Each structure stands twice: as structure tokens, then as C-alpha cells.
């Protein structure tokens, strides 16, 4: 199978500039080229790009994906490192959820404003003075 980059993009849902970028940084191996210098992709590229796209959708950064691809290339090795990468990513997700929950609580609190005049508006007051925030994750 020899796919042009446009067909690869359609099959995987990954935009052409992103495919080229992944090639440039070594996440996707450069494909052979035709006599006319067109890239010619095969099923290996489709599978790799699917792996990368799924990992990106789950929020893994490119360094983690690069490590996971390396691990996937050695199926007889133990999967401890892959688990470690996933656990580290999960910890980041849990941290983000905690920060977002704190932000939601703060915005909910600041929108419970019964004043009718902007001069006494809780939203404006809190945004004008960060000291009026009560959430603990001020960053």
C-alpha cells in the first residue's frame, strides 16, 4: 500500500502539517519517496499515527509518546516503564482536576452576587483584588 499524505491524513484524522511535524521530530518515521519525490506511506505509518493520535487525545505529551513508541518496539520487555509513564500522566490529570475544581468553586462563589450596581459587584471586586479569592491554588 502506498498512500499519499492527503490519504494518510483522511484515514487517521491527523492534519497534513501535523504529519510533517511528527516526521520532522522523529515521532513518525520518514516514508520512502516516489520518483516524483512524493511521500509514500504504508500501513505501519497508519498504525503509528493512530497510536500517536490516541495518545495525544488522552493528553500524553510528545516526550512520553516518544518513550511509549520506543517501548512498543520491544514487545518482550517488561511494561514497568509504560506503567510509570501512564501513572505520571494520571498524577498530572488529577492535579489539573483539583485545580479546576477549586476554580469552579471560586467562580461559583463570586457569581453569587445580589447587588444591582457594578460598583458593588462581587465579580468585579474579586477580579480587581486577588486577595478576595478564597481558593488555595493561586497560580
Automatic annotation (TrEMBL):
Taxonomic superkingdom: Bacteria
One of the record's GO molecular function terms: DNA-binding transcription factor activity
Keyword rRNA-binding applies: no
Keywords: DNA-binding
Keyword Repeat carried by entry: no
PROSITE patterns, per the entry: HTH_MERR_1, HTH_MERR_2
Stored SMART domains: HTH_MERR
Pfam families documented for this protein: MerR_1
All copies of domain HTH merR-type, residue ranges: 2-71
Name by which UniProt lists this protein: Probable transcriptional regulator
Organism: Fulvimarina pelagi HTCC2506
Amino acid at each position: 500500500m502506498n498512500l499519499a499524505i492527503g490519504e494518510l491524513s483522511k484515514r487517521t484524522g491527523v492534519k497534513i502539517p501535523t504529519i510533517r511535524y511528527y516526521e520532522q521530530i522523529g515521532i513518525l518515521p520518514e516514508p520512502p519517496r516516489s520518483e516524483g519525490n512524493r511521500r509514500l506511506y504504508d500501513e505501519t505509518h497508519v498504525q503509528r499515527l493512530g497510536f500517536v493520535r490516541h495518545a495525544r487525545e488522552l493528553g500524553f505529551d510528545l516526550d512520553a509518546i516518544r518513550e511509549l513508541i520506543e517501548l512498543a518496539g520491544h514487545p518482550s520487555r517488561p511494561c514497568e516503564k509504560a506503567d510509570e509513564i501512564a501513572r505520571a500522566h494520571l498524577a498530572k490529570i488529577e492535579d489539573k482536576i483539583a485545580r479546576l475544581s477549586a476554580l469552579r468553586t471560586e467562580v461559583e462563589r463570586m457569581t453569587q452576587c445580589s447587588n444591582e450596581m457594578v460598583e458593588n459587584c462581587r465579580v468585579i471586586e474579586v477580579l480587581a483584588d486577588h486577595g478576595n479569592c478564597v481558593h488555595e491554588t493561586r497560580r
